[in-house]
Fold this protein.
Amino acid sequence: MAFPEGFLWGGATAANQYEGGWEEGGKGPNTSDAMTSGSHTVSRQITWRNTATGETGALPVYAVCEEGLPEGLEVAVVDGYYYPSHTATDFYHHYAEDIALMGEMGFKCFRLSMNWARIFPTGEEAEPNTEGLAFYDAVFDECAKYGIEPLVTLSHYETPLALVNKYGGWKSRELIDLFVRYATCVMKHYQGKVKYWLTFNEINMMSMGSFMAGGLTDGSPHAKAQAAHNQFVASALTVRSAHQISPKIMVGQMLAYNPIYSYSADPADHLLAMERERDALWYADVQVGGHYPAYRLREMERAGIKLEMGENDLELLATYPADFLSFSCYGGSTVSLRQKELEVASGNLAFGMVKNPYLETNAWGWATDPYCLRIALNELYDRYHKPLWIVENGIGWSDEVKADGSIHDGYRIDYLRKNIQSMEDAVELDGVDLMGYTMWGCIDLVSAGTGEMRKRYGFVYVDRDDEGKGTHARSRKDSFYWYKKVIESNGEDLD
Ligand code: BGP
């Protein structure tokens, strides 16, 4: 048998795309609450208010990430826009039903994120919001009924909005202590209920999606580097705090990692592929390896970036690295020096990438890559020698509900079968130490990239559309029954 006894099969979600209840139970607004919907071709927008005049408007997310928010504007939720995260797919009111469906599939693990602003509405309250704590208590108690182990991300693409407008998000060191206080509070409160925690979702998205990853409204490379550094220190302090609370708690890093392929055999293309890999890997070199790698130090030196450091920062990073490395992986990306002459790629992490001629893609440019998980797992295990966990993998597709209510998502089964086989090869043939696999978006949720509903990932369909209309009724897709079999057989039966 390839997978060890106790392998953590399951699914993954995030509060900003799934939970909803944005103004219920005393929750404060988050960065994601001020993001409109978009599409494959139209960017999501961030809405703002002019603090002097009260005028309101919106800017594309990429513009805020690259150029920042102009002086005098603050991020705000304003009338007249549609914000998909406000209700999302309403886990807030459907958690018992959803966890029962996960139980029916045989989930051993459920990855969800906790909404920081549900616990500390502005991030700075002296005491946590008890209604917020009670909500997640109810969620974890429900999980326990089915023997489902929660894996909780402390910050998945959201920062309390008050901290963004007051401090400029994670570029300020103020957020370090505020985050560690929040993390310590929930790790203590849920001790005995939650063993596995992740600090920041896809921490390396600070480079490309800094508003989502760090609540940044300053697009400069310096702000991004400082924000990442502040999150590293916060992560190290969270690891320290977790181990003080209980030696049983494990805290992981979460990295967006797609293997990078060289388009041609030209060594210059190969060098480029290595450099693009390092764009992601340096984050793990710091958070898992415990120190800034030489190539990153040189890169910052060349860019004139000088980090503001606390006296013990480097020691903290070296002493409290993450206990394990979790990552998202959807398929490999391809680079070439001749990029301009070639067809460009689209899909996640596709900026500056070219289309891989060996892989088929769907309407969102997503390819089914039968080798990416094996390659990714080997690369990360060889480099860090720490337990790994695939916490996101899956494919967004527009599902069709037939007249009889059935949903035939053979394309999803095909994608997952190939990916799980590739992961199995890494475990069985290469001996990689893998803790678990949580398929992304196990119950349909809002897409982070486009804010759409039509780009669906789930084993379970949720009746809601791109305008926010629908009953939120849940129904099982064909892949639901397929995944149930996969888990039952501990990965032996992929047919
Ligand atoms: C990852 C994010 C998730 C999720 C996923 C799918 O980058 O961690 O939050 O959204 O990608 O991407 P999308 O939602 O853009 O389809």
User: Anything to note?
Assistant: The CA atoms of residues 28 and 70 lie 24 Å apart. The chain has a mean pLDDT of 96.
